[in-house]
Amino acid sequence: MRVGGASCRAAQKVRNGERIEVEAPEPVLLQAEPQPLTLVVVYEDAHLVVVDKPAGLVVHPAPGHPDRTLVNALLHRCPDLQGIGGVVRPGIVHRIDRDTSGLLVVAKTGQAHEFLAALFKEHRIERRYRALVHQGSRLADRGTYRTLYGRHPHDRKRFSSKVVRGRSAVTRWQVVERLGSLAVVTVQLQTGRSHQIRVHFSEHGHPLVGDPLYGGARADGRLPRAEAVLVARLGRQALHAELLGFPHPVSGELLRFASPLPGDLDGLIAALRALHAGGSGPQVSGRGR
Known about the structure:
The chain has 289 residues and is α+β, with helices and mostly antiparallel strands. It has six helices and 13 strands.
């Protein structure tokens, strides 16, 4: 961008009458192509596939992530997926964040896509997550976060529950284990807004361990040194989609899938448990596995 024929800074103020020139880049068509990437498939039939996504894998192509996504891998495994629900997000009816691990269902037919999309819209999908959060000073044994929800008013990359207008967001949670300054919680989503779990816990004073966007990474640095050393190894937000349940789009049979904690998160919790073992740490209320 140029102002008055000269290059300008992003925050530069302009005056009345100044000429502003903008050169728009050529549009780039995002077209997902099949790629032979490793997938952990939990269930598959002619109508849908359930995968256990590793942390670090983006769900579908987007600016900054044009390929090597879950969609690219699925197109290689299921060539008929192309065009189901769109060319960029074929078969995708819901997403989990790149650095969140766990279960995700993908439609393989138009009928299944329409059915599953309706279930998610009507909040009739069973979803349970496991997270490691900062206890702060007032983390109760269980609770419900029920708020409005929308884009952050000042940062378009983030979302917030502290908005004047927005959609409803409901998160139910329960502590299953307390580990020093941290706690393992299970989380049930009644709604499925982008970043909902991360936002709700952060804005109630209990950010997820390792979350760089919503304050968890900053909070990690204020932990007691022994805990801080352990959590620094994780390198992502401590969130895992561990349970997914829904009726089959054709047979109506109730399908329910569970995913164990991946090695990085399971190892961190085990190390924290060992650190606080022997009665010197806080009371443990059960592993909840």
